[in-house]
C-alpha cells in the first residue's frame, strides 16, 4: 500500500468525521443521562 495511490486527506477526513460522530454520540448520551438519571 503506497501512500501516493490514496490521498492522505481522504483518510484524514474519514478519521475526523468518525471522531466527530463519536463525540456527538457521547454528548447525546450525556444529555440523556442528565435529563433523566433515574433511568440508569
From TrEMBL:
Question: So which domain of life are we looking at?
Answer: Bacteria
* Protein name as it appears in the record: Uncharacterized protein
Organism in which the protein naturally occurs: Pelagibacterium halotolerans (strain DSM 22347 / JCM 15775 / CGMCC 1.7692 / B2)
Amino acid at each position: 500500500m503506497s501512500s501516493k495511490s490514496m490521498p492522505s486527506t481522504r483518510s484524514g477526513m474519514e478519521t475526523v468525521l468518525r471522531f466527530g460522530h463519536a463525540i456527538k454520540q457521547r454528548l447525546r448520551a450525556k444529555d440523556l443521562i442528565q435529563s433523566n438519571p433515574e433511568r440508569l
